[in-house]
Amino acid sequence: MSPRATEPIINEDEHPTLIPSLSQGNVLELPPDSDKSTAAADGEHRGCLNTVFDPIKGVVPSGGMASNVFNLESATLGAGIVMLPSGFLNSGIIIATLMLVYICFTTVYSIRILVITRDKTGFRSYEEMACGLLGRGADYFTAFLMFVFCFGTCVGYVISVGDLLSPLLNQPSTTGFLRTSMGKNVIVGVVWLVAMLPLSLPKEINSLRYASAVGVFFIVFFVICMIVHAAMNGLKDGIGSDIRLVGDGWGILNGFTLFVFAFICQVNCFEVYEEMKGPTPRRMTRDSSVAMSMVGLLYFLSGIFGYLDFGNDLEGSVLKLYKPQDDVMMAIGYVGIAIKICGGFAICIQPSRDAIYYVLGWGKTSDVDSWKNLVVSGVLATLALVLGLVLPSIEVVFNFLGSFCGGFLAFILPALYYMYAGNFSLKEVGWFNYAVTYQLLIVGVFAVVFGTALTIYDEVKK
Question: Hey, what's the signal peptide range on this chain (predicted)?
Answer without folding.
Answer: none
